Amino acid sequence: MVHLEEKILVSRLKSGDKNAFKLLFEKYYPLFISFAKRLLKDEIEADDLIQNVFMRIWVGRANLDEDKNFKNYLLVSVRNEIFQHFRHVFRTEITGQHLEIMDDGVDLETELSAKELEQSISVIVTRMPRRRREVFNLSRCDKLSNQEIAERLGISIRTVEKHIENALSDIRKNIPISILALILALW
Which of 34, 163, 175, 176 is 20 to 30 Å from 91 at the Cα level? Predict the structure, then answer.
């Protein structure tokens, strides 16, 4: 699809043309589902994520800019959705905010594994550069919003997001998320 055709399709999509939406979806879905599957390592989650991105595009279609590269727009949207997914997974699993799995039947071995994991994460956090560690702790321990952290530290929200993104990346590099999810689900 050449840029001019894409521009026309985006323009038609803005006006509510379902066929234009379908053509753009069919063109880009295979590319981005493959990208999401590689990062998420979960086909169902990847499909849900890409479907959400396209749903948001449909809902917000009036705000699309046909002069901008639609593929790049999709890439940024998918990337942001993946980051948001990892943030949600991390917050849910690490902080235990939404875990209601706590059970009196948890055995000592599982409890020890969870404590070892928590200690491993603490070690990873202490090895982070000072500012990244500070932003991460304000976000996860003090539960401040990105806006509050930015104001407190006198930095931009995007810088806060980048520090959190890098902190989560450091943790993921050292502790595979699937192991983390399994241990914390049992915790």
Answer: 34
